[in-house]
Here is the input.
Amino acid sequence: MSNLVITEQPARLFSFLGGDQGRWLVQSITPIIAATLAPAARLDVIAGDARTPAGVWTLRGVTSNVRYVERAEKLALLSKQEGLGRPGSRCGVLIPIKKSDEWWSLTQDERREIFAAHSKHIEISLKYLPAIARRLHHCRDLGTAEPFDFLTWFEYAPAESTAFDDLLQALRESLEWRYVEREVEIRCYADGD
Amino acid sequence: MSNLVITEQPARLFSFLGGDQGRWLVQSITPIIAATLAPAARLDVIAGDARTPAGVWTLRGVTSNVRYVERAEKLALLSKQEGLGRPGSRCGVLIPIKKSDEWWSLTQDERREIFAAHSKHIEISLKYLPAIARRLHHCRDLGTAEPFDFLTWFEYAPAESTAFDDLLQALRESLEWRYVEREVEIRCYADGD
Here is the structure.
């Protein structure tokens, strides 16, 4: 029996490779909760699968349907947000997190209550749009044993660094974050192309 | 560049192989909506990954956290349901479905409203517990291009066949099912072990 089959990937899969290649120069890798990731000089953000031995580590995730956001919130987010890849967005930050078994055993209404009512996750995110662009990737249901549940990739201009720090602090002080059992912060910078 | 890496799998991943092996004798493969699956004599239900050329087709999915069920509903379901593998459950049915892009672009509240208020999905499921055991598998966020979004595997005793037909009919008449764009029904039977 062999699992060596190359399978087609949907356009929603992205890979983040820590290693010595890629556009993004890694400035710091900081363990916020529990274990860190191995040091890497550069980060490569790739559309598709990249489970290769090329990197020091590879994190994979898929963009997916919204899990908690309601219609009015989705419209508010869509009307304010801007895409990745803006020329001035020279700062890139990857935040992989893993949530606890307790979080995953909550029901939909309980998770939504923590996410929205107590943690104001959407309100916090809205406040920093469009300055801070983000893309959320899900890892938990990939079918492989991934070290994290979510990978969030942020991009912003250097002038917005303080705003980004405020955003992170607000999220980390929220009730939702009590269910985070591993979190790493990977700060990157991109030179001119 | 090679993708030929064997990766670890979480215990939540299951594979359904249509072919000439496995405990389950396939009685019928019926296309309910859109394209059918290729004929297969037997169905093998395997814990873990099985992307091998051994089967005529392989469908994979992961069990995951609940997406719409609330606490009271979860408790009601848990208190009534029984597990797979009961000795008398000689009937097995696999129902792979794919939902439309329109469904996936709905927000959480909109999907919950269709799932619960209009379609009474939970109420219908509760009515047939514990006679009909089921396990739901998610395929959409596996990171590979899967032909379906969900695989539901049902097991019940032959005497419950009419009840099972009623359950299927109730679900297919629901508003939720208007968002199903592909559905196949694979009925199986297991001889004595």
User: Anything to note?
Assistant: The two ends of chain A are 46 Å apart (CA to CA). Confidence is low (pLDDT under 50) at residues 1-6 of chain A.
